[in-house]
Design goal:
Radius of gyration of chain B: 22 Å
CATH superfamily of the largest domain in chain B: Gcn5-related N-acetyltransferase (GNAT)
Distance between the termini of chain B: 24 Å
Mean pLDDT of chain A: 90
Largest sheet of chain A: 6 strands, mixed
Structural class of chain A: alpha+beta
CATH architecture of the largest domain in chain A: 3-Layer(aba) Sandwich
Helix content of chain B: 25-40%
CATH superfamily of the largest domain in chain A: Gcn5-related N-acetyltransferase (GNAT)
Order of helices and strands of chain A: EEHHHEEEHEHEEHEEEEHHEH
Shape of chain B: elongated
Largest sheet of chain B: 5 strands, mixed
CATH class of the largest domain in chain A: Alpha Beta
Strand order of the largest sheet of chain A: 1-2-3-4-5-6
Number of helices of chain A: 9
Low-confidence stretches of chain B: none
CATH topology of the largest domain in chain A: Aminopeptidase
CATH class of the largest domain in chain B: Alpha Beta
Mean pLDDT of chain B: 95
Structural class of chain B: alpha/beta
CATH architecture of the largest domain in chain B: 3-Layer(aba) Sandwich
Distance between the termini of chain A: 52 Å
CATH topology of the largest domain in chain B: Aminopeptidase
Number of domains of chain A: 2
Shape of chain A: globular
Radius of gyration of chain A: 23 Å
Strand content of chain B: 25-35%
Oligomer: heterodimer
Largest interface: A-B, 75 and 74 residues
Strand content of chain A: 35-45%
Chain lengths: 282, 236
């Protein structure tokens, strides 16, 4: 589709990279599936790939799948799925959904994501799409990156959860938290989370102790003395979910949710001086 | 059954901005073979469909989860019955938790009444790619009206005739006013997430002739789509 020469920082040297954009070729389907799994670690099954890339109506891999190459190497890409959307006068316009944006681990930080995203918008415009849609999770990078490519948050769908097994739901929340990046100022700090669940027959408390290392949350298997805990959070599950949502909506929203929960005694916090200093940036 | 479901969805959400759903889309998006189990809970009265919920049984890490891809009900009572049906089935399938995402649903409070906990996990983001296509689709025969030239940064200008009941794309007519804005503000106005007055005050909209501000306000009110329906099953 196009070739662009650009500079990229590679150690101390400034190296000129030849960047080109094309669409996937027939015969490269397996390579694309493998690339998605390598980049997302993991992406999904071959059956799921077939559902999205072969069986999806009005979809052709050689037209809808963008590949970005750096110096002839497959570096990343993205996909456009087209739909028709009803307007209130019952007429339709063409729209597209952007998805499966990935960058090969060896090519991160070189602007491959930007090239893929811009190319997808251009491809969609050429194919007559009036609007582009994306559905990022609020705790992942794309929700912060997409405004650079013209996207803005328009709808905030709510997720309602009916918890039947509190332990498994607690593990699920922790698995999501492990995907988030924590500021380095909290490195080597220990946290205890206790979540209260009101089930139909009783009130259950599920807790765990965690430590942040290199910006990542890790579960501690050994029990810790209270003296070693920098922050203890004890909350009802509904309150905790509202606070997590507020965290991504901004500082003001987070502050008001935490304050409300503390006043209503649905949240208890206990922290060390070390944590307070780090939190306040002192 | 698929045809009945699609007709019902189109009836309940007829006023909403939404994607078209064909039986082919349904099979791929709502009834895929790549999940462990899939099902549709329905509520019918006198042989007429009153509501349905589509769910997939998926594994998230070590958890077994019912992921409700879409839930459409004509009233609160039907929604309550659908939630009960889905939770009952999930217990039989030894599920750990049930997820249901809603599109700013008027019956949202029913979920809390049934013990659901609400939180935000994803957002729907939109980018403007071709304003002329949108205005062309909204264009209807309009005899009288003022000529408005819309200039959105990064796009070719579009000229429309703004009548009392509709808008029509206009060609080679001298504009009564020019409205300038950016793509993001246009999207916010189009989906009713902000008002013309607010954006004018914030200087995200400028007018060549302020005395014609009512025409610009009327234009944005007429193109506004503040009701939407894009259930999770339609996401890619």
């Amino acid at each position: 589709m196009k070739n662009v020469a650009k500079s990229a920082a590679n150690g101390k040297k400034d190296v000129k990279l030849e960047e080109s954009v094309r669409t996937l070729r027939h015969g490269e389907e397996t390579a694309h599936f493998n690339m998605l799994n390598l980049s997302f670690d993991p992406w999904g099954t071959e059956e799921e790939w077939r559902r999205r890339y072969v069986l999806h109506p009005d979809f052709d891999v050689s037209e809808n799948v963008v590949i970005v190459e750096e110096d002839g190497e497959w570096a990343g890409g993205g996909t456009a799925w087209f739909r028709e959307a009803y307007l209130k006068n019952h007429k339709t316009v063409r729209v597209y959904g952007a998805g499966d944006l990935y960058v090969h681990p060896n090519h991160r930080g070189k602007g491959v994501y930007s090239t893929a995203m811009r190319s997808l918008n251009q491809l969609a415009q050429k194919k007559g799409a009036a609007l582009g849609f994306a559905y990022p999770a609020i705790y992942r990078v794309p929700s912060l990156a997409l405004p650079k490519y013209g996207f803005i948050t328009v709808f905030n769908p709510l997720t309602h959860v009916f918890v039947l097994n509190p332990e498994k739901f607690f593990q699920f929340l922790i698995s999501r938290a492990k995907k988030a990046y924590f500021p380095e100022k909290f490195n080597r700090m220990n946290f205890r989370f206790s979540v209260l669940f009101n089930t139909s027959d009783n009130r259950r408390e599920v807790s765990g102790v965690f430590r942040i290392e290199k910006g990542e949350l890790n579960e501690l298997t050994k029990t810790q003395d209270n003296a070693n805990i920098d922050l203890t959070v004890k909350a009802e599950v509904g309150t905790l979910l509202r606070i997590i949502s507020a965290f991504y909506l901004g500082q003001r929203s987070l502050f008001s949710q935490v304050l409300l929960a503390l006043i209503k005694r649905r949240l208890k916090l206990r922290f060390s001086l070390r944590f307070l200093r780090a939190f306040l940036g002192l | 059954m698929i045809d009945k479901i699609i007709d019902f969805r189109n009836r309940i959400h007829k006023e909403d901005f939404r994607f078209t759903l064909t039986p082919e889309h349904w099979n791929i998006l709502y009834s895929p073979e790549s999940v462990e189990k899939r099902g549709v809970a329905t509520v019918a009265r006198n042989g007429e469909l009153r509501g349905y919920a589509v769910y997939h049984l998926v594994n998230l890490g070590e958890a077994r989860v019912y992921d409700v891809r879409e839930i459409v009900a004509e009233n609160e009572e039907v929604l309550t019955q659908l939630i009960d049906q889905v939770v009952d089935r999930s217990l039989k399938d030894d599920v750990d938790f049930v997820f249901a995402r809603t599109c700013e649903d008027p019956y949202e409070k029913v979920y809390a009444k049934k013990g659901g906990l609400a939180f935000m996990e994803s957002v729907v983001m939109v980018a403007l790619l071709n304003p002329k296509e949108i205005l062309s689709a909204l264009s209807e025969d309009t005899k009288d009206g003022k000529i408005l030239k819309l200039h959105i940064k990064g796009f070719d200008s579009v000229t429309v005739k703004v009548g009392t009941k509709g808008i029509m794309l206009a060609k080679n007519e001298k504009p009564d006013l020019t409205v300038s804005t950016d793509g993001k503000t246009f999207v916010r106005l189009f989906f009713g997430k902000t008002s013309f007055a607010k954006e004018l005050f914030r200087r995200r909209i400028s007018l060549s002739n302020i005395s014609n501000w009512t025409t610009a306000n009327h234009f944005f009110n007429m193109i506004k789509h503040d009701k939407w329906y894009i259930p999770m099953g339609d996401w890619v």
